[in-house]
Design goal:
single chain, alpha/beta, Rossmann fold, 2 domains, 8-stranded mixed sheet, 4-stranded antiparallel sheet, 14 helices, protease
Length: about 550
């Protein structure tokens, strides 16, 4: 009877297509397919999936405490950033988690490689049939109607019950990519060069004197085969910064099979914008273009993670990183959003200021779309990075109507902004009630000009608009402040927000007019103090120097 019972149990397990002896529990699921995507059918069982596992980090709460300790101006440890080894001690999974996950992988004949410095991320490849079996999933093909983008995803997946508390997530599973290219809007026709350097000097007091500290570096993220062209940079500098050598350039780093070909026809609007307005504004600061290839499943989020792990692996990562890409928060699983956000905290604890463009869809998300409730963007909702919105006009500046802003549905309000956000919500009253999460992390944090930036692409001048213009501009201001701090023997600013919302707030130009329409509303109005259109305001370099103690 025992033998017969075992045989029946074995056959039952085989029929279900699940590993023996594993009680699978649903780990992540989404209720519906993101807007614009539709189900096409089951994925071919032979298609290879490149999957990643995130192991539970041993003590992220401890790292978060240390991050705020070294990033808050009133703290005795302000500026005492953590070393690579110190960060990894908080993030490295516990040995029992590593053992449990490896045992499960071995049991299923899978060999995975570690892909993060702290050992909290692993990667392996399996066919769809195996993935469906391992995770009790239904990997299917989904198509984005407008762009034709096809992805293989599942609406839910499970993991063995005994891996709960050890395995945090599997990716890509329920997270969908942003099908749009996130590129800034190209204005037409090209207008006068309102944003040549001398105008930034007039508006924000950004100095033209050359930085002096070679150890201080500014990095620019490059994704989706956007390439920064050196000849275009030379032309740009010749026209807009004739006071510095036109041979001034950037260094290149690559990962995930990234490259940066110099064929003029391959010059990217976004990459050229970001490089021209960092090299061109942060005078003399060594600038790095980090080109992330597409050696992963699909979507940009793997690249978002990989570039941070790439920098975390360095002994001396750059002091500023600016990124002009993002997507709607609701396309991402909460677990993955948390993992990426935690990665920004790790780099911030090392002394790097992380800035992202807030998006160009007003309250309707990363880019304009139809919606009923307001759509927050990612990673702007993450509390461990600095989100940059956009303004336009001079004397006074006003909010650019495309500037994405609002409140996260995934991340709660961090303590550093509670007072500022509370004041705004009180002033807002019942406007747009029920369309956003009043207890969510508010964004953007700051802003700069974001309209009519002249750039050079393939030898020709173009004018572009977008928060893609604003993030590299504000990043350049921070890089120049870091240069002065380094020259004075002081630490870089690192994670900016505790500073910006305290001693730095009075060094920003408050923007009190304009709004960011979307979702068939006027969006949020800019008001005195912080607002979810322009944040705390735009930079005043002289006042910021005083605020950082120089």
């Amino acid at each position: 009877m025992v033998t017969t019972g075992l045989l029946i149990a074995s056959l039952f397990a085989l029929a279900l297509g699940k590993p023996m002896g594993r009680n699978l529990q649903v780990h992540e699921a989404r209720e519906d397919v993101p807007d614009g995507f539709s189900l096409q059918g089951a994925a071919s069982p032979d298609t290879t999936l490149k999957l990643r596992l995130a192991l539970v980090q041993s003590d992220f709460a401890g790292l978060e405490e240390r991050l705020y300790d070294v990033s808050t101006p009133s703290s005795a440890n302000y500026g005492n950033h953590l070393s690579k080894a110190e960060v990894e001690q908080y993030i490295a999974p516990k040995p029992e988690s590593v053992d449990a996950v490896n045992a499960w992988l071995t049991e299923n004949g899978i060999s995975a490689k570690t892909i993060s410095p702290a050992g909290d991320w692993m990667a392996f490849e399996v066919p769809v049939s195996k993935a469906n079996e391992l995770f009790d999933a239904d990997f299917s093909v989904y198509t984005h109607e407008q762009t034709g983008l096809e992805v293989i995803r599942t609406m839910s997946y499970s993991i063995p019950a005994d891996l709960q508390g050890h395995l945090d997530l599997v990716h890509p599973t329920i997270t969908f990519p942003n099908p749009y290219s996130h590129l800034p809007v190209v204005s037409s026709p090209v207008k006068a060069a309102r944003h040549a350097h001398e105008n930034f000097t007039a508006i924000y007091g950004i100095p033209t004197t050359r930085a002096t500290e070679s150890s201080n570096k500014l990095a620019v993220s490059g994704f989706i085969e956007q390439f920064a062209n050196q000849a275009d940079l030379k032309t740009f500098l010749t026209k807009f910064r004739p006071d510095i050598s036109s041979s001034t350039t950037f260094t290149l780093q690559t990962l995930d099979d990234g490259e940066n070909p110099q064929n003029p026809s391959e010059a990217g609007v976004e990459a050229n914008l970001d490089i021209q307005y960092t090299v061109g504004l942060a005078t003399g600061v060594p600038t790095i273009f980090i080109s992330v290839g597409e050696d992963f499943q699909d979507g940009d989020l793997e690249g978002f993670l990989d570039i941070i792990n790439f920098l975390l692996a360095e002994d001396t990562p750059p002091q500023v990183l600016t990124t002009s890409y993002g997507q709607n928060e609701n396309t991402i699983s909460r677990n993955l959003a948390n993992q990426l956000c935690n990665a920004y905290a790790q780099l911030g604890a090392r002394g790097t200021s992380i800035l992202f463009a807030s998006g160009d869809g007003g309250v309707s998300g990363s880019q304009s779309s139809s919606c009923r409730n307001f759509v927050p963007t990612f990673p702007s909702g993450c509390p461990f990075m600095t989100s940059v919105g956009a303004t336009q006009g001079v004397n006074p500046e006003t909010a650019a109507d495309f500037s994405s802003g609002g409140f996260s549905n995934y991340f709660g309000q961090p303590s550093y902004q509670q007072s500022a956000v509370s004041s705004y919500l009180t002033a807002l009253g019942s406007t747009n009630k029920g369309k956003f999460n009043t207890s969510g992390r508010g964004f953007p944090d700051v802003a700069t000009q974001g309209v009519n930036f002249e750039i050079v692409v393939d030898g020709r001048q173009e004018a572009v608009d977008g928060t893609s213009c604003a993030s590299p501009t504000f990043a350049s201001v921070i890089a120049l402040l870091n240069d002065r701090l380094a020259a004075a023997g002081k630490s870089p600013l690192g994670f900016l927000n505790p500073f910006l919302y305290s001693t730095g707030a009075s060094a920003l130009n408050d923007v009190t007019s304009g709004s960011n329409p979307g979702c068939s509303t006027n969006g949020f109005p800019a008001k005195a103090g912080w607002d979810p259109v322009t944040g705390l305001g735009t930079p005043n370099f002289a006042k910021l120097l005083t605020a950082v103690g120089l």
